[in-house]
Amino acid sequence: MKLNIALAQINTRLGDVPANLEKHLELTRQAQSSGADLIIFPELSLTGYSLQDLATTVAHHPEAEDIIFRPLLEASQKIDMVVGFVDEDNRHRFFIAAAYLSGGQVVHVHHKTYLPTYGLFDEGRFFAWGDAIRAFDTRFGRVGILICEDFWHASPPYLLWLDGADLFLLTSASPGRGISEQPTLDSARWVEQINRAYASLFTSFVAHSNRAGYEDGLNFWGGSTIYDPNGELLAKCPYHEEALLFTEIDLNQLHRTRARLPLLRDERTALLMHELQRILECDKKK
Amino acid sequence: MEPPMIDLTINTDLARKILTGFISSEITRAGYSRAVINLSGGLDSTLSCYLAAETMGAENVLALRLPYKTSTPDSLEHAQMVIDTLGVQTLTIPITEMVDPLIEHFPDMSRVRQGNIMARMRMIVLYDQSEAFHGLAVGTGNKTEILLGYTTLYGDAACAINPLGDLYKTQARQLARDMGIPAAIIDKAPSADLWIGQTDEGELGFTYAEVDQLLYLLVDQRYRPEDCVQAGFAESFVRAVVERVRRNHFKRVLPPIAKLSNRTVGYDFLYLRDWGT
Fold first, then answer.
1. What structural domains and CATH numbers belong to chain A?
2. Which of A79, A208, A262, B118 is 20 to 30 A away from residue A69, measured at CA?
């Protein structure tokens, strides 16, 4: 089975949801007319990243009645979509979120579970922590979504893998940092290393949609990628520029890679649980 | 023990791409399409001018030459060299007649006070031309001078955006070389040129090559002062630089506002400048 993925590596207007919505709809039309099955927008693609006190004013809830999600859901009749936004739940907690839309329905919403609050990051100050990591079924098989810092921790991708995800959809708004003699920033190399590692370790497809553009002095380095279950790079957007990149992935590669390398078959979850329990018990005694 | 050789080399193609993108983004989002720069003829202002011209087009950059009567002729000539090479717009406005009346009020005024007045007068002209030319004031301060506080608050430190503020002086020099800035500008002794014979390194008491390496360990690599001593830097040097960075922090932040209400600018009223753009 073939799946044509469009990586929408966009810049955003900070706090201007209607303007960002227009861009989403335009790129989605382009992707759909180019034959894409799924378009993936980066983290907080409808709002911009460094929201600070804007966080509570740009929030939306993904449902048909919502003024922003109504047109997105309409667009998802023809092409599946992953969009980034601020989700305000019915208790008025604000989450960094990504929604998977398909056939006019909200198929899945992921709330970012790890909020970096150190260095240049201040997410934990403004947002609530998500508390679920779940894979979900799509017309292309079982899929998992993670947002930026989520996949700097090894456990969320691992959990998604055990929960059945064969395709990891990773989104981020990664600020570029770390200049040296290398032709790429430290932050770009770090992310590429771990995404390739996840593809290899979990013998799965890993598609990463990152942002471009600037917010004040922060640059977002783009460089969105798709790795196949062998850890091979299938596609890569340019650094530091907006892009809409189409890549056809062959889901049958999962069969071929896992026939060669049955890591999933041999994964010893009972052993994991046993040892994890022991470690946590030990911690308690300390 | 010899200090270690720490490699501050950067990929200048990458730096150039990020910095020109930054200049373009910030000027455009502020609603402008032009830039104004105080061009002293030194390395930093020349580099800012090159980056701005490359980004916005030479015709959209106004380079100001603002000499005082004691400014070295080199400064004016080097600035002219940059203007001729890039083809940017230019104005030359001597500041002597604006500065001297205040200085003459105080016959025993120190050189530092006089220098600060010159730097602040240049800021006044820069911001006036910013309005007249409809261009955003592009700064020229590098990371070394920002960290050391080797700058006049509301003087040469004043700008709307600063493309060089995360480059150490030695890195700015490397970028300047790779951008084809004339060697005469790159190789001369860095100077604020506020009085005759002034040089940065003479006034600071150490070289940029030395202090950049130390600052890189302290700031970028998060070494503790004692780790820097262990790495080979003289303890007195480390202590002096750490203290200098601390003492000058007031130049790097906005003045603190006394909090009274439930929501106060700077504490819990937090927005980026790019808010809404």
1. 2-285 (3.60.110.10)
2. A208
- d(CA A53, CA A56) in angstroms, rounded, equals 7
What residues in B contact A185, CB-CB < 8 Å?
A: 14
For the segment B218-234, what is each residue's pLDDT rounded down to a tens digit? 999 999 999 999 999 99
Collapsing DSSP states into helix, strand and coil, what is residue A228?
coil
Task: Verify whether the Cβ–Cβ distance B21 to A219 is below 8 Å.
Answer: yes
What is the per-residue pLDDT across A20-43, written as a single tens digit (0 to 9) for each?
999 999 999 999 999 999 999 999
Which of A200, A102, A214 shows the shortest CA–CA distance to B30?
A214
Domain topology for B12-199: Rossmann fold (3.40.50)
**pTM of the predicted structure, to 2 decimals:** 0.95
Q: In whole angstroms, what is the distance from residue A247 CA to residue A234 CA?
A: 8
**Which residues in chain B have Cβ-Cβ distances shorter than 8 Å to A176?**
18
User: Quick check: B262 contacting A, CB < 8 Å?
Assistant: no
- The answer to whether the Cβ–Cβ distance between B275 and A54 falls below 8 Å is yes
A19 touches chain B (CB under 8 A): no
Query: Within 10 Å of residue B97's Cβ, how many Cβ atoms?
Result: 10
